[in-house]
Amino acid sequence: MRLDKFISTTTTLSRAEAKKIIKKGILINDILIKSPDYKVDEINDQVIVNGNRLVYQKYVYIMMNKPKDTVSATEDAIEKTVVDILKDEDRIHKVFPVGRLDKDTEGLMLLTNDGELAHKLISPKKDVEKKYYVEVSGELKNEHLEIVKTGVTLEDGYRCKPARLEILDTSEGNSKANIFITEGKFHQVKRMMKSLGTTVTYLKRLSIGSLKLDENLKLGEYRYLTDDELKKLTK
Description:
The chain is of the alpha+beta class. Helix content is 25%, strand content 28%. It is built from eight helices and 13 strands. The protein has helices spanning 3-10, 15-24, 82-85, 88-91, 115-122, 142-150, 188-195, 227-234; strands spanning 26-28, 31-33, 47-49, 52-53, 61-66, 96-97, 106-112, 130-137, 164-171, 174-181, 199-208, 211-212, 222-224. The strands form two sheets. Strands 5, 6, 7, 8, 9, 10, 11, 12 and 13 form a nine-stranded mixed β-sheet that branches. A four-stranded antiparallel β-sheet has the order 2-1-3-4. Strand 11 (199-208) and strand 12 form a beta hairpin. Helix 1 crosses helix 2 (15-24). The longest helix is centred in the N-terminal third of the chain and has 10 residues, at 15-24. The chain is elongated, with a radius of gyration of 22 Å. The relative contact order is 0.15. The model has no long low-confidence stretch (mean pLDDT 95).
């Protein structure tokens, strides 16, 4: 990898800023280098900038407990994004959200720069199950279990793929449930609930495939995936 790209990838510096620093000299394996197109061995070379050794990671995987009033995007001119929550040292990896959660939906958000894994997790063809906890105004009934199982028909005529519904509680005209889906149409859970005659009042994603939201993460907090979580997820 070019030296200027390596530095911009492992720090908050832009390529242009990296080139300015390189002109002054960068220590690589104790040898002073001043050429931005010098080829770096990302794994084995020891690159020192401002007294610190730069460590290269090709892919990173971050679990976030997404808060409300945050959009699932890398940037937005008006709204706060999930990437805005990250510290500068975590943004340098240029991660993006895997799939989307509505602005007012909380819960598990995976951010990564691994495009191949992201595609596998959100592709309807892969049937990766996502679990949501939902609260609705209206009564969820046993008859709804079979409707969801065979495929809810949305207001535009689209028939959802078979899903699963677990009714947790129904009282005073309100219901709580878990719903498991393998696709991610626009506002899908909300539209499914609407087709069942209810209105979503609260929605939270709890899992993506084998990856479960860490209960210790408060809203707006995040951490890197463990090796075990990543191993299970990539299977």
